[in-house]
């Protein structure tokens, strides 16, 4: 008889005995484990649709702002290169990061192992395109005439902290949850900190983005900002939507009824051993 570790709603682990390696009981405390689809959870499909709509709206708004007010994108010229920075960082450290956080909520009937792999894959994309976004910001400062000082603003300082926290979270997550030799009790102990640290990193990315937009618009419109030009109003609205988007993500994450229920095979590897 093998023992299967099943992750419960409160992130604790319950060991369920099974008669053989190929069969896992679907009962816990005498009741069948019923997995609900997203459309069976009251309100989830609606709030998830709103979440995706706002995320895509944010990306389109940033693109529209840079294309209409900031001369667009290119691979030559300080401004056109620099314009890639806010767009790529919005896509990666806001939209993709949010989807990565909620991935376990959105695909609740997928096995935990697959969800972990997909979660790591999304984070890998964030790192790749995030590096490109950071490079465009730094490179545009270097080629400017005269060169623009680097890492002098609160936005840049918080950006560095956010990236360090994100990379630390990514590496620790790979080791803790995907490395097969890690004991289940260690995974259980690490999980709450992984979640809290991830939410803090996401919140910091939202704050950093808002500061970046404020810094960009102040430098761009200079003295006209006091007269509320159209560009300033537009970007202020983007900042408000960005804050609301971050709050919505945290709300979906902490709402108990939106939490993914455990599947009987969440704690079983392909060879039937516990992990």
Automatic annotation (TrEMBL):
<keyword id="KW-0812">Transmembrane</keyword>
<dbReference type="GO" id="GO:0046872">
    <property type="term" value="F:metal ion binding"/>
</dbReference>
<feature type="transmembrane region" description="Helical">
    <location>
        <begin position="119"/>
        <end position="138"/>
    </location>
</feature>
<feature type="transmembrane region" description="Helical">
    <location>
        <begin position="44"/>
        <end position="66"/>
    </location>
</feature>
<keyword id="KW-0472">Membrane</keyword>
<keyword id="KW-0813">Transport</keyword>
<dbReference type="Pfam" id="PF03188">
    <property type="entry name" value="Cytochrom_B561"/>
</dbReference>
<feature type="transmembrane region" description="Helical">
    <location>
        <begin position="191"/>
        <end position="213"/>
    </location>
</feature>
<dbReference type="InterPro" id="IPR043205">
    <property type="entry name" value="CYB561/CYBRD1-like"/>
</dbReference>
<keyword id="KW-1133">Transmembrane helix</keyword>
<keyword id="KW-0349">Heme</keyword>
<feature type="transmembrane region" description="Helical">
    <location>
        <begin position="86"/>
        <end position="107"/>
    </location>
</feature>
<feature type="domain" description="Cytochrome b561">
    <location>
        <begin position="50"/>
        <end position="254"/>
    </location>
</feature>
<keyword id="KW-0479">Metal-binding</keyword>
<keyword id="KW-0408">Iron</keyword>
<protein>
    <recommendedName>
        <fullName>Cytochrome b561 domain-containing protein</fullName>
    </recommendedName>
</protein>
<feature type="transmembrane region" description="Helical">
    <location>
        <begin position="233"/>
        <end position="254"/>
    </location>
</feature>
<dbReference type="GO" id="GO:0016491">
    <property type="term" value="F:oxidoreductase activity"/>
</dbReference>
<keyword id="KW-0249">Electron transport</keyword>
<dbReference type="GO" id="GO:0016020">
    <property type="term" value="C:membrane"/>
</dbReference>
<feature type="transmembrane region" description="Helical">
    <location>
        <begin position="158"/>
        <end position="179"/>
    </location>
</feature>
<dbReference type="InterPro" id="IPR006593">
    <property type="entry name" value="Cyt_b561/ferric_Rdtase_TM"/>
</dbReference>
